[in-house]
Amino acid sequence: MFNFKVHQELTCVAEGSGHFFARVGAMVASKGSFKAEKVLLDTNQNRSILNSVINLAARKLTGENIPIMKVDGNGLYYMANSAQHVSIITLQNGQSIGVEGENLLAFTEDCKYGVRFIGTGVISQKGMFTSKLTALNHNAQVAITTDGNPLILETPCVVDPDAVICWTGPDPSFRTDVSWKTFIGQTSGETYFLEFNNPGEVVIVQPCERAGSGLNIAID
């Protein structure tokens, strides 16, 4: 069994033995004996070939299909992505996390991996789908990356959909703040939000909006 921890903010270290899953190319160093191979269909064990193909198709069609590799071995395995900051989320049995595919770095073997529809990203760069990982046992772990030090919030809270990275618990609702001023370019530009209302969950945002983000409605 592997345990994830953050090393000097920018690196995830997987320590232990057995196997885990990571995005292809994440490894920057290792100490011990490891073998990595690309996952062709599905990371989920005990799933039929048909269901694995359906899961792969769903990830490809929704744009949440990042290349994943299975890492077997024992020792220390160091992972990073473009010098981004790394955070580790620990999930309890049955708990789920929604995370942007581009920000998913690694997850332990006891996570079920798939996608889910959230339908709140029509006018932002957030997208209408997100990757979903569900813990099959206690202390399952997911490693995510952010541009800059992450802001970790406890719900309830409201966040910018172009800065959100991941959240535990139910999906958010979509809220807008559109008035006549929006159409003449007299607002702050903060016209739409994701609203998390279920208490006691966690939302992680980064101090950087995705490129090309925002709703631009105005009359010049």
UniProtKB/TrEMBL annotation:
Gene3D superfamilies xref list: Mitochondrial biogenesis AIM24
Short name of one Pfam family: AIM24
PANTHER family documented for this protein: ALTERED INHERITANCE OF MITOCHONDRIA PROTEIN 24, MITOCHONDRIAL
Record-given protein name: AIM24 family protein
